[in-house]
Amino acid sequence: MLLTGPVLMMGRRASGVPPSRTTVPGAPQRIVAIADVHGAYEEFLGILQRMGLIDAGHKWAGSATIFVQVGDVPDRGPETRKVLDLLMELEREAPAQGGKVIPLLGNHEVMQMMGDLRYTTPADFQSFAIAQSENVRDLAYQDYRKFIAASRGIHDVPDDEDAHQRWLARHPLGFFEDRDAYAPDGVYGRWLRTHDAVAQLGDTLFLHAGLDPGLHFGSVDELNGKIRSEITGFDKLWQTLVQQKTIWRYMTLDDAFNQVKLSYDAAQSRSPGAPVDVEYMRRMLDLPNGLLMSDHSPLWYRGLALEPEERNEKGLNAMLDRLGAHYIVLGHTVLPGFTITVRFNHRVFLIDTGMLKSYYGGRASALEIRDGKFTAYYADDPSSHVLVGETGTTDAAERQKEWAAVPALTPSRRP
Q1: Any bridge partners for residue 198, and if so which?
Q2: Directed axis angle between helix 253-268 and helix 220-243, to 10°?
Q3: What pLDDT does 406 receive?
Q4: How many CA atoms does the CB half-sphere of 229 hold within 13 Å?
Q5: What is the pLDDT of residue 399?
Q6: Averaged pLDDT for residues 128-152
Q7: Average pLDDT of the residues in 391-405
Q8: How far apart are CA 409 and CA 360, in angstroms?
Q9: Rounded CA gap, 266 and 273, in Å?
Q10: What is the largest distance, in Å, between two alpha-carbon atoms of the chain?
Q11: pLDDT grade, residue 271 (50/70/90)?
Q12: Cβ pair 122, 79 in contact under 8 A
């Protein structure tokens, strides 16, 4: 995408891209699920080839397989764009062979769409940089100065070289192109907004983090609809706050929260020149309570991975029965040993094994579901490991006992 200056894209509506549908009745012949990639492109290629989903030229070779990627492609690693581009291409190619690629939303996809860039690496920003990026950033800085001046009710902001250098450090080359790419009309933002957070294939649910048994929703379609609606609502809210000059269009989510809080507090104290309309500010400040950010959201919830099983088992079983499902496949939480872990009497499969080795020290893995058998595969292991079906349940139970004695690697609130 070629930019000649900062372009406001945060509020535009994506058009011409129909929503994907991920509730599929019946039992597909073969499903392969892979969890969090986090920019680990080479590791991702390795496990895709191990599972026969791509050929040496990185083209779809999975025939009628359904491939589910359960989210968290961006952040922490260096090659997010390559992974996203590959997923987009495989999604287009698979139907020609009768296959299907289902990329689901994880919390890090939504963080990118919302401008939460705490875990975006310098290499990821650099991957968006173009020949005009210096000019793009210079124009953005001038635009930012105008915003700050207007917010303070002054004609111009005095030059401050130290402040300028700090601003440049917070906005590396590629920053603005990155933000535009994940905006509603950006190449990745538009694509991500067509995807769901939860997929139901036969009797198995797939999602990024977990389903809180205490979460109130009627069906998978209803839950996906709520998340889509909140994303659309956020896009409109952001656009409105930009138009009202409450926030700057390229602020990070944290900076926008801080700016809105200052304006809201000023309005509440009836300071001179304070904004009168605070409704959109209230909506912004209430975002942490919604499905996009809450610890109880399918994008964030870790209870099925970390809490004692007896706390959630009754509620989980009732929820799965209500949804017509028997199994649930999750990513999001890396556990000791970097193996696919089975919980809740072989109903919950935790498949995030820390693919990004430079960060987690783990390995790439995949879960295959075929004819009622759940089998774990690892990029560094030529063997396959049956978890459910044939004799696999006994082995899985033994591994579960070993895992239960070791503290989890991932704190419950870490993104």
Answers
A1: 207
A2: 70
A3: 41
A4: 8
A5: 46
A6: 93
A7: 48
A8: 9
A9: 9
A10: 75
A11: low
A12: no
CA-closest candidate to residue 188, choices 178, 174, 197: 178
Q: Tokens 């507090």 belong to which residue?
A: 265
Report the alpha-carbon distance of residue 340 to residue 378 in Å, rounded. 9
Query: Which residue type does 114 have?
Result: M
Q: Which residue has the tokens 């049956």?
A: 386
For residue 304, what pLDDT is reported? 96
> Is the per-residue pLDDT at 1 higher than 70?
no
Measured on CA atoms in the order 254, 259, 264, 265, is the torsion positive or negative? positive
pLDDT at residue 6 tops 90: no
Rounded Cα gap, residues 211 and 11, in angstroms: 30
Instruction: Please say whether the beta carbons of 140 and 6 come within 8 A.
Output: yes
3-state secondary structure the chain: CCCCCCCCCCCCCCCCCCCCCCEECCCCCEEEEECCCCCCHHHHHHHHHHCCCECCCCCECCCCCEEEECCCCCCCCCCHHHHHHHHHHHHHHHHHHCCEEEECCCHHHHHHHHCCCCCCCHHHHHHHCCCCHHHHHHHHHHHHHHHHHHHHCCCCCCCCHHHHHHHHHHCCCCHHHHHHHCCCCCHHHHHHCCCCCEEEECCEEEECCCCCCCCCCCCHHHHHHHHHHHHHHHHHHHHHHHHCCCCCCCCCHHHHHHHHHHHHHHHHCCCCCCCCCCHHHHHHHCHHHCCCCCCCCCCCCCHHHHCCHHHHHHHHHHHHHHCCCCEEEECCCCCCCCCCEEECCCCEEECCCCCCHHHHCCCCEEEEEECCEEEEEECCEEEEEEEECCCHHHHHHHHHHHHHCCCCCCCCCCC
Strand order in the sheet with 30-34: 100-103, 66-69, 30-34, 365-370, 373-378, 381-388
Token look-up 């390995």 returns 363
What pLDDT is attached to residue 160? Answer: 85
CB atoms within 10 A of CB 289: 10
